[in-house]
Amino acid sequence: MTDETAARLPARQSTLELSFDLFLRLVALSCLVYGTAYWVRLIGFFEGAEWRFDLMPFYWQMTAVPLAVLFPFAAVGLWMMASWGPVVWVLCAGLEMVMYGLFPNSFGRWPLIVGLHAAVATAYIVLRAMLYLQARRTGH
After folding, report:
1. Is 63 helix (H, G, I), strand (E, B) or coil?
2. Helix %, strand %, coil % for the chain, to 5?
3. Nearest CA to 71 among 89, 59, 83?
4. What does pTM read for this prediction?
């Protein structure tokens, strides 16, 4: 193997990079579950006015449709570790935090979702900061 060939080989990932990749994949799986839940709500799989699109209140229609589309889209971006994956996730998480945090009378109170989204965002920021510091320390 020549030096040129060896230079093109990918370097081994650090434990921190592997942890970040695993974190993104776990968030991607949760986005897929959330997206599926919104699709179940839209297609009327369960009985009840809030579980069928044509019987939903307008505010649910206006939030459930974008989330049903964007959560699976975020899942794909996060799974592929594309730069746009976290951006789409932030849109989804932000919308749910507004729904359940600022409008509990309309959407219901769901502090667990708000807390989970905040925890995931905090973990993402901490991991990205640690990756930045690691790259700066190693000179990459």
Report:
1. helix
2. 80, 0, 20
3. 89
4. 0.85
